Amino acid sequence: METIERKPRSRENARSGIIGTAKAIARREGWQAVSIRKIADAIEYSAPIVYEYFDSKDVLLDEIRSEGFRHLHQEYERIVKLYRDPEKRLYEISLVQWDFARQQPEIYQVMYNLNGAYCTIPVCESDAMQAVGDTVRQTIFSFIPKSKESIQKLYFEWWATSHGMISLAMLLKDEQHVEQSEQVYRDTMRRFVRGLR
Amino acid sequence: METIERKPRSRENARSGIIGTAKAIARREGWQAVSIRKIADAIEYSAPIVYEYFDSKDVLLDEIRSEGFRHLHQEYERIVKLYRDPEKRLYEISLVQWDFARQQPEIYQVMYNLNGAYCTIPVCESDAMQAVGDTVRQTIFSFIPKSKESIQKLYFEWWATSHGMISLAMLLKDEQHVEQSEQVYRDTMRRFVRGLR
DNA sequence: AAATTTTCTCTAACACAGTTAGCATAATTG
DNA sequence: CAATTATGCTAACTGTGTTAGAGAAAATTT
To answer: Domain HTH tetR-type, which positions (chains A, B) (predicted)?
Structure first.
């Protein structure tokens, strides 16, 4: 993913090379260390070339963020198709969220402007994020048919609980053991889902 | 807090001037806009002077962060002294946390490396943060005398729930109405406290 | 009072950041 | 072959954190 040959490369190829390099640097050195010049060096181009693919660093980060939300959305839809029991669905969705944040922390960080990642473009306006929200709201609605406002409140609660634990576990990863955090997360999310009926 | 006269100023005076200016800029333009030169301009000094008071920007941010945790700790202690009922205590502490994040979002952001604020120094090692944790753990212990591990787990849960809602409400402040978020927060925290007994 | 030292503050510079303008070369088209 | 388009570069601008070293002013000593 790092040292890409320069010779045979189409436009889409270069674009994904930029994204991949940005993610690789962020994973290795943190988002603060991600610079246009460093990306350009890695893909063996000069800095201005990057601007042929992304209008600004902000737009690049936004693209990576949207990619993250789209990936998450796909995973959620997979879960929805896999299980029929609404409770099982929501619980498994919760686990997917945890695993995603564990396996690709740099993506999770840019999605929520965490730990030095900073994208000016408001995340609320992202269609991908809306789509994720819709899937979860539908799942909640599927076993608790309530008013739109009530569903929104429950979704907000679920989201906050999950995101709170994930971002806190990231913050304390040196002090608190991952296994324990994960156990608490599982228990809490299971309890949350149970509490819905 | 912005245009400070230069004439009569002691060392402590200048130090707090730097901190105050940094906070003011962060509040007005976000943490990403906080630069050493801008701070120096505001206090009518040249940039290197700032380094006489703080070894680096990182240290400056860490100081502001610790200040935030110390302030929060004081508020928590005030609540503990004010109420005898443990449930009331924890609930009021939760509300203090919300109000703090509402009234001084820039401080809350630097405390958790949110929204462009980025301090390299690990927050876990902060004594002030530990002190805050101790107070909350004690409060939880005061009406649920369990093992250290259980208390730690409950504290983690409480913290995650509170922090999750606060940071999410910050993220969605344009979409979701503050009043509704606050209502959900109050309900959730009350339910959490109730659920402890 | 003169000389010396210490204190205070500044300018200049370095490497790096995001970003843009303009030029050179290569590929394609007529 | 000539003209045009595409491609990628260098150089530059402003702004960032940070450091070195110069210079003035104040305090101290002789």
So the answer is: 12-72
